[in-house]
């Protein structure tokens, strides 16, 4: 089962932005995720239409099952 950590943010202009991390650690805590998201905000390197990330809105781990029917 594939897992992805989705980190959701809002920019200063109100736009939404999502960053994803493939195969996050099994033992992640909400405190660790909040701290990492604050680090992303503080770094000031991500944004949309020249508006930088201003706040963290949510985070979640998404699990999905992929069944290969034809391998190439």
Topology (SSEs and partners):
Elements: E1 2-11, E2 16-22, H1 30-43, E3 47-48, E4 51-64
Antiparallel strand pairs: 1-2, 1-4, 3-4
Structure commentary:
The chain is built from one helix and four strands, in the order ββαββ. It is globular. The mean pLDDT is 95. The chain has one helix spanning 30-43; strands spanning 2-11, 16-22, 47-48, 51-64. The longest helix has 14 residues, at 30-43.
Estimate percent helicity.
Answer: 10-25%
* Total count of helical runs of at least 4 residues: 1
The helix-and-strand class reads alpha+beta
**Arithmetic mean pLDDT:** 95
Oligomer: single chain
In N-to-C order, the SSE pattern is EEHEE
Rg over CA atoms: 15 Å
Query: What is the global morphology?
Result: globular
Share of residues in strands: over 45%
What would a concise description of this structure say?
Helix content is about 20%, strand content about 45%. The chain is of the alpha+beta class.
Quick tags:
globular, alpha+beta, 72 residues, 4 strands, 4-stranded antiparallel β-sheet, 46% strand
